[in-house]
Structures are given as structure tokens and as C-alpha cells.
Amino acid sequence: MRKWALAGMLYVTIVIVGFQAYDKWFADEKDTAQAGMQDMGEMKDSKNKKNKDSMDSMNSMDDMEEAHNGKITEAGSHEEKGSHGHGGDSSHSDGSQVNAFVYNDENNIKIILKDKAGNPIDNLEVNHEKILHLIMVDEQLQKYYHVHPERTGKGEFTIGNPLPAGYYKAFIDIKPTSYAYEVEPIPFVVGTPKMDGHGHTLVPDTTFTKTVDGETVTMNFNSFKAGETVKLSFDLDRTNLTPYLGAMGHVVILDEYGKKFLHVHPSNETDTIFETTFDKPGIYKIWAEFQHNGKVRAFPFVIEVTE
Predict the structure, then answer these.
(1) What's this model's pTM, rounded to 2 decimal places?
(2) Domains of the chain (ranges plus CATH)?
């Protein structure tokens, strides 16, 4: 009986110890599993954070690229703007170191030349007997004036106003001794013009013989192709032809928009032959100036330059 009692106690003890061991093992496994799950969660959070940071970085790069592209587009775009008023200037030119201003009233037209710092520019080379040539045209390129204002101060030139009321563009042809300069159109207005004169379209001439004040001139040419040397020669009465501004003639050319300006002189001192090049195809107007008996006449021609 005593043996059975001892055996029963031993059995109970083994069962209790077994349950305790099992419970400890299960708890350890549970803790391990929970720790593993926590580690996996942390790894997942870390990965998600990295992905988020990566996406944020990519988005940031995209935003920077879009902003950069926007800046390039804005800076790269260019729109020429002109405004009408009693004065104008060509200070928008990036290639020119000279700011040219035009002021006018009923009596006078005044030219002001300044450098980028606002200092007057007064050192100009003589160019065909004059230090400043002022060419003015109306917006329809029907009226043409080639005049020579007198110096009235440092960087200042003045001439009487010969223009009727209207919208005009001025081209100041000079050669500064120490500054880069490009001739550009300077829009300005005289008086109170009517608004119905805008929108005139130039039509290329079909004949190249023109008569002005009784004098007749015929223009000959080898071609009108862009990028090629174009030779212009003029047949005219040479009996009373005299040099004008140091040459036997002058040719001024504008594109149909009044933006591109060319002032061409003869190839030599005795002939009325001129050579130039047109960069782009389009419609152009030519004024050929010749002096007969002391009177200068401008003969207008409209041409089409092709590819």
C-alpha cells in the first residue's frame, strides 16, 4: 500500500513538473514569436518609410525638374513688345550696349544716346559724311524719311519734326567708337493719328521700274533667294547724278514687319551697284536713294525673298 502511495506521489510530481516545463517553453515560444512579429513589423515600417522617402525624393526631383523646365521656358521665350507714345527706346536689345531714345513734339524730334549705366554716349565715328543717320517710316511702310539731326548736347541730337500725325518707327544708324551697337526699330507716335491706318499689307512688285518727281529708275537683280548674295543694280539717267553722302546712292531695306534693318552702300565709288544678303525668306521693302541736281529722291520697291 505504501508503494502505491509513493508511486502516486511521484506521478503527480512528474505531471506538475512537466506542466511547468511546458508552460515555460510555450511562454518562451510566444515571446519569441511576438518578438519576431514585432521585428517584422519594424522592418515593414522601416521599408515603408524608405519607400515613402524615396517617393518623396522622386517627387521632389520631379518638382525641381518641372520648376527648372518652367524657368527655362519662361526665360527662353521671347516676345517683342512695342508701345506707342511720344517717345520710344531700343533698350531691350541684348546685343547692343547703347540705349537709344526718341522724343518728339510738334516742333522737334530729339535723339538721346546712353550706355547701360545711363551715361551719355557722344563718341561716334563719321559714317558717310554724317555721325548719325535717322531713318523713319510709318507703320505701313508707305512714308519714308532719311534725315540727319544735329548734335545739341552730349549724346543728344535734334531735328525739326517733318512728320504728319501717325505711328512711326525710327532707325538710328550710328557707329559708336567704344560700344557694340545694333540698329533696332523704336516705335513712336506723332500727334493724334487715326487708328484706321493699321494692317497694310505689302504686295511684291511685278515691275521694277519706278518714277519719282520726273526721274525714272529701274532695278535689276540676279536673284532673291535667302542666304545668297543678292546684287542690285540700277539703271538711271546719270547726266545729272551727283554723289549723296559720299556715295552714288544708298539703299535701305526693311522686312514687312519693320524689324529687320539693312543700310547698304554701293560696291564702289562710281557705280550704282549694291550687294547684300537676306537671312530669311519673306516680303521686304527697298528704298533706293539717288541725288539728281541736288535733290534726293527715294525710289520704293517691294520684293519677295524665297527659300
Answers:
(1) 0.69
(2) 87-190 (2.60.40.10), 209-305 (2.60.40.10)
